[in-house]
């Protein structure tokens, strides 16, 4: 069965960095879209970044452009989110998601079929 397992969250001071990982298994990793979302208490889940795994095309929310980088290791079926210059407002639960029938839409949570359990990022 499909599994997405996130790791790498934690607590960091403002201005610091963290790298999240998402290991995917149970489906054909190539030619789909992998996304990172986040949800802060009392707020809606929002997309942070996504990658079209086949060609490696990346997408970013405006709030993280220039600070976050999404990347992948196809050999390991793993997607990463490098987060630099972290801000207080980046504090949230971060989720990895897979859209296995990607049609070009990457921003909406409803587009994604599978989700990881989430990893907490706290910036203070």
List keywords for this structure.
four-stranded antiparallel β-sheet; 124 residues; single chain; 11 strands; mainly beta; globular; 49% strand
Quote the beta fraction.
Answer: over 45%
Runs in which pLDDT lies below 50 for 5 or more consecutive residues are: none
Task: Let me know the largest β-sheet.
Answer: 7 strands, mixed
Total helical elements = 0
Could you tell me the mean pLDDT? 95
Query: Mind telling me the C-alpha Rg?
Result: 13 Å
Proportion in helices: under 10%
SSE order, as H and E? EEEEEEEEEEE
Q: Short summary of the structure?
A:
The chain has strands at residues 3-7, 10-12, 18-25, 33-39, 46-52, 57-60, 68-73, 78-83, 92-99, 114-115, 119-123.
Q: Could you walk me through the main structural features you see in this protein, from its secondary elements to its overall organization?
A:
It is built from no helices and eleven strands. With 124 residues, it is mainly beta. Strands 2, 4, 5, 6, 9, 10 and 11 form a seven-stranded mixed beta sheet that branches. Strands 1-3-8-7 form a four-stranded antiparallel beta sheet, with no helix packed on it. The mean pLDDT is 95.
